[in-house]
Structures are given as structure tokens and as C-alpha cells.
Amino acid sequence: MAKTKILVIAIVLMAIVTGSAFAQQYRVVFFAAGNEIWTEPGYLGNVGHAFVYVEGYGTYGFYPNGRVTKNQALLGVPGIIRDDSNHSYDASVSFTVTSRGRDNIISLINNWRRNPPEYQLMQNDCVSFVMYVADVIGLDYDYWTTQSPRAFVNSLDRNN
Predict the structure, then answer these.
(1) Does 73 map to a domain?
(2) Which of 49, 52, 21, 54 shows the shortest CA–CA distance to 35?
(3) Contact, 96 vs 72, CB < 8 A?
(4) Comparing C-alpha atoms, which of 109, 10, 121, 114 is closest to residue 63?
(5) Which domain holds residue 83?
(6) Using an 8 Å Cβ cutoff, are 52 and 130 in contact?
(7) What three-state secondary structure class fits 48?
(8) 117: three-class secondary structure by DSSP
(9) Spatial separation of the C-alpha atoms in residues 89 and 152, rounded to whole Å
(10) Is residue 104 situated within a structural domain?
(11) How many other CB atoms sit within 10 Å of the CB of residue 46?
(12) What is the pLDDT of residue 113?
């Protein structure tokens, strides 16, 4: 009886230390929206948008900082992380991550908020941002899908 009790205690302690049991789980959702809001002639329009929700932290996407033309966005402009909690979407895929995975995502978002990289449509844009989020939690996707928000979300769904 004593050996069984010691074995059970050892298993529970090992599970707690390794994080394999009793670990806090969080939901992360990747979103794709069909059309972006900039539809004035000469300005960004119908480019789509990708963004991510992190349970207990918020919903964020990467944008050009300010109103820019398509040509400016293609050449590169200052970028900014914005709250996308009210953004509509057409497609989504959800994953469960550990607290370590969530912390890694939050660290990435905070780094991009403090020191946002240049926004460059088709090179370093909203899809690139969610791709980096997927990378820090070890998700697989088809690289060729990184140019389309919908294709990227569908690829995450297909490959994980």
C-alpha cells in the first residue's frame, strides 16, 4: 500500500514538473477576412486580412501605419499592430496551446508592438505576422499560401 501511494505521488509530481498534465490550456484562433476596409480609388482595397486571437490576451493584426496607396504598401511603409477584436472574418481555425505557447505568442506580439517592422504588402504583411505566430507554436503550413489570408488559414487547418 505504501509503495503504491509513493508511486502515485511520484507520477503526479513528475506530471506537474514536466507540464504534461494539469497544464493550463489556451485557445488561439487564426482568422481570414475577405476584404479590407480601404476601398477608395488608388488606396488599398480588397486585399483581405489575417489576424489572430489569443485567449486572455486579445485579437491582433498587422497593418500599414496610416492611410497608404497600393504602391506605397508594395514598396514598404511603417507598420503597426492593431486591436482587431471587432474585425469581421470569413474563415478561422482554432488551436489549443499550453501556457508556454501562449507566452511565446504574447512575447512576439509585444515585440512587434514595441518595435513594429516595416509593412510591405506581399513581403511582410498581415499574413506574415500570423505566420510568425504559427511558427512560435510549431504549426505547419504550406509556404506558398502565405500571400493570401484565406489560403493561409486553410493551410493551417489542413496541416495541423
Answers:
(1) yes
(2) 49
(3) no
(4) 121
(5) 27-159
(6) yes
(7) coil
(8) coil
(9) 14
(10) yes
(11) 9
(12) 97
Candidate from 37-51, 63-77, 135-149 with smallest mean pLDDT: 37-51
Task: Tell the burial category of 18 from Cβ atoms under 10 Å away from its Cβ (0-12, 13-18, 19+).
Answer: exposed
Angle of helix 126-136 versus helix 149-159 axis, rounded to 10 = 20
CA 66, CA 30: separation in Å to the nearest integer? 24
- CB count within 10 Å of CB 110 equals 12
Grid cell listed for 40: 477608395
User: Which phi and psi angles does 24 have, rounded to 5°?
Assistant: -65, 135
Query: pLDDT tens across 7-29, in order?
Result: 445 444 454 444 555 679 999 99
- Residue 17 counted as domain residue: no
Amino acid identity of residue 30, one-letter, is: F
Written as nine digits, the cell of 119 is 509593412
Whether 127 and 105 have beta carbons less than 8 Å apart is answered as no
CA 148 from chain center: how many Å?
A: 14
Annotate 80-137 with DSSP letters as a single string.
EEEE-TT---SEEEEEEEEHHHHHHHHHHHHHHHHSPPEEBTTTBSHHHHHHHHHHHT
Q: In what order do the strands lie in the sheet with 58-64?
A: 91-98, 25-33, 49-54, 58-64, 77-83, 118-119
Number of domains composing the chain: 1
Angle subtended at Cα 67 by Cα 42 and Cα 93, rounded to the nearest 5 degrees: 95
> Does 150 map to a domain?
yes
